[in-house]
Design brief:
The complex is a heterodimer of chains A (about 110) and B (about 110). Chain A is mainly beta and about 110 residues long. Helix content of chain A is about 0%, strand content about 60%. Chain A contains no helices and 13 strands. Chain B is mostly beta strands and about 110 residues long. Chain B is about 0% helix and about 50% strand. Chain B contains no helices and eleven strands. The chains are: A mainly beta (about 110), B mainly beta (about 110). At the A-B interface, strand 4, strand 5 and strand 11 of A face strand 5, strand 9 and strand 10 of B.
């Protein structure tokens, strides 16, 4: 079993829809949670960065962490064709001050006009 | 503002050839990382350098070596390339161990 599970999709939605992307994990030591967006033939770009449980909002994006269920989500409101990309969740324990990120395999999202 | 720069962007090698992938960051970050990305596998850490002068193995280090040349540069070497090393390689950097990582745009490597 992988430490981080993420539905690979693809997920296809119409422009303006609310998108929900999710990851589950098995390691209760994870404390930092991140979402990256990766366009085709580009490197991952940091979208959201949260510590512990709760919600964090940034414009049209909301990251949610539920540590009791070992479940994190990224919500995209009013989705746009420019949101079409692969979304990677990543998480990290803190051990000795080093950041060892564990990534999900990514969910491909397509937003069509 | 370049961020993390990787060279080359594409490369084709024959089995047994050697190659060094270059990475440089201009953000004055202390920590640097090398990952490989394969379909359905996500990003897997090959090696990392927590600070200048130190390197450590990640999840999949076999067949690779690294050099932290200075604070800006971190190179990845394949001594004898194998078809299983066909992948997209990403370099990343972070200010410290607890901060998020910033990625380059990758090197696409094919080994025949």
């Amino acid at each position: 079993q992988k430490e981080v599970e993420q539905d690979p999709g693809p997920l296809s939605v119409p422009e303006g829809a609310i998108v929900s992307l999710n990851c589950t994990y098995s390691n209760s030591a994870f404390q930092y949670f991140m979402w990256y967006r990766q366009y085709s033939r580009k490197g991952p770009e940091l979208l959201m960065y949260t510590y512990s449980s709760g919600n964090k909002e940034d414009g049209r994006f909301t990251a949610q962490v539920d540590k009791s269920s070992k479940y994190i989500s990224l919500f995209i409101r009013d989705s746009q064709p420019s949101d079409s990309a692969t979304y990677l969740c990543a998480m990290s324990p803190i051990s000795g001050g080093y950041n060892k990120l564990i990534f999900g395999a990514g969910t491909r999202l397509a937003v069509h006009p | 503002n370049a961020g993390v720069t990787q060279t080359p962007k594409f490369q084709v090698l024959k089995t047994g050839q050697s190659m060094t992938l270059q990475c440089a960051q201009d953000m004055n970050h202390n920590s640097m990382y090398w990952y490989r990305q394969d379909p359905g596998m996500g990003l897997r850490l090959i090696y990392y350098s927590a600070s200048e002068g130190t390197t450590d193995k990640g999840e999949v280090p076999n067949g690779y070596n690294v050099s932290r040349l200075n604070k800006r540069e971190f190179s990845l070497r394949l001594e004898s390339a194998a078809p299983s090393q066909t992948s997209v390689y990403f370099c990343a950097s972070s200010e410290s161990g607890s901060q998020p990582q910033h990625f380059g745009d990758g090197t696409r490597l094919s080994i025949l």
